[in-house]
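Work Package 3 (structural annotation) set out to generate three-dimensional models for the target panel prioritized at the project kickoff. During this period the team completed the workflow that converts sequence records into discrete structure tokens, so that structures can be stored uniformly alongside our sequence database. As a representative example, we reproduce one entry of 553 residues exactly as it appears in the project archive.
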Amino acid sequence: MQHQPPAPPPRHALDALVDVTTRRPRLSRLLSLVAVLVLGAACIVVFSIYARTMDEIRRDHRHIAERHAREVEYFMESRLDTAQAIADMGSSLLNEGSPPLPWVADALAPVPERYGYALNHDSAPPFTAGSSLTGLGPVPLTHDTLREMTMSLRLLILLREVFQRDNTTPWVYYTSERRFMLIHPAAPPSSFFFEDIVLELPFHTLARPDANPARAHYLTPPYLDTAGKGWMVTAGGPVYERDIFRGSLCIDISLRQLQGIASHHLKHDVRIVITTPKGELLADSAMEGDMSTHDSLLALPQHLSQAMADIRSQREVGVMHAGYTVFHVPLNDLGWHLLLTMPTRNIANDALFAALPVGGILVLLAVSIWLLYILAVALRTNRELSIRDSLTGLHNRRFFDEVLAMELARAARGERGFGLLIVDVDRFKEFNDTYGHAEGDLALQHLARVLVSSSRELVDMAYRLGGEEFAIIAHVDDALQLDDVARRVCAELRSLSLPHTASRSGILSVSIGGAMLQSGEVSTADTLYRRADTALYRAKQAGRDTPWIDGLT
């Protein structure tokens, strides 16, 4: 028998591939090129995700800065508006010419050691407790001075409400040109008693006609409280008796309150600073302790001061400076500046950690994510189209029925009441017959814009129920407020002066019927709608171009 050589051992696939590539250089170069392309594509994907993530992190922190800026502006503007509103109330009380309260003169007691007088709470009604009234000179007995004191004491309930809503507020007070001051909460005479120097402090001088001819609310520069409550700014409003300046109504804001807003919900590596135009620190989230207790205002750190000067023209993306990325948001209405800073290396690390895992799977998931995105957009678009009226852009009858059912359920649970207004265009058939359907459609679009502008954004909502019939679901407290909304609609449409020869007034108008459902009241949609529709019928009987609210005489 012929001898057979032993069979060769099985070869590994990689060895075979090596042999093939060795024998075929062209295929080897092709595989190398594919490997380089794959590696390059992976690098491009990772770098792209890294760069995009960096931008997203910057945008996120820009949004954080803007959110805190809005919070500061809202906080300060609410104090300014409140001060102005209470000051206007004081002016109204003075202009009414009401006589002084009979007990006021008897409740004022001399304080010889202070060369003045103070309100004696033992002789005053209980509502004055917790406040103090002090003044210079003899106890006033003149009719006008006692009237002004009466006005300030009547404002106490509003001043106390301001303090109760935010008990970190240092003081709320009224300062009179007649050399007296009402303050809440009470300041003991040992820490504060009215002096003439008070009339020369910014919180009062900024209210005077020479400094504030427009009689607008104002905000003081930061100053150190003489009664020991640290650094603060003051929101104030002037009080006038007709054209005579009488005093100032003020709400103090401690820097501690601003510090709380600046430090609200921040990551440990993020720092927010609020500063005056002069570079004085109003708040610093990185500052430990109470800034308002320092003997003087702290200055903005040099690197942040320089960064603010560098980034005024680049506020959208932030600027890297001294190892930090800095965002600047000017608080234009207040004259302040807000800076948000965080270490640039932290942004880079976060972006890198986000890019590496995503880069590995992005190619496999890209098509799926894109298809899911298209599906989500399509579903969202279909949903929006299904609840919108194509002509006016308002929500349609279908969505109206859904919202009305939810509001009825809320009212039945006692959460909140609401009002329903049914709006109908007067003699719309004649309008179409006279001007044509194209002008009729344009008129309905005008009315839709009026309904939206007359309703409170994010609170009330307008709908087109069909044809020339519209509705508003208004979250108001009573029928009078509902009537105000309806009258605004009539007035704003009337101001457009859209010609309508068949109308009694010669312009396009609407009739409105309304019904109110109070919190805790149970009703069905049909019942509430019939009430509003009946009121609409009465509005038309009353001559059109007018609202009629059910139950409002």
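DSSP finds 14 helices and 19 strands in the chain.
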